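Deliverable D5.2: sample structural annotation.
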Amino acid sequence: MSKTAMELVQEAKLVITEVTLEQAITMLDSSSVALDVRELLEYQTGHIPNAFHISRGMLEFMIANHPTFQDKTTPIVVYCKSGGRSALAAATLQQLGFTNIHSMLGGFDAWSEDSVIPPETQA
């Protein structure tokens, strides 16, 4: 029996930890690392300050070689546009042995709507 993308996201959400925007901000202000799993063009248009980018489609192949993610206990806040891809990415990271993964509810849309926090853009 095949599944829809939304069914896969719902299954992922059963096994991951999701955090609110406020919780994510607190985590990122301390020792957590932001991981943007959107496509490169989305990231280049605007992203959370100091976020690292690995698109969801390349995550399994690139995370092991990224110097920031060598310690699998590093606290990571994963985000995408609205929360679906980040849920899938968080579940994948857990399967890869990462132990401190959090998916940000609402994604970059929620971050962008918060007028207190300007997105960072690349020139």
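Annotation notes: The two ends are 46 Å apart (CA to CA). Residues 17 and 58 are 22 Å apart (CA to CA).
The annotation will be released with the project's public dataset once the embargo ends.
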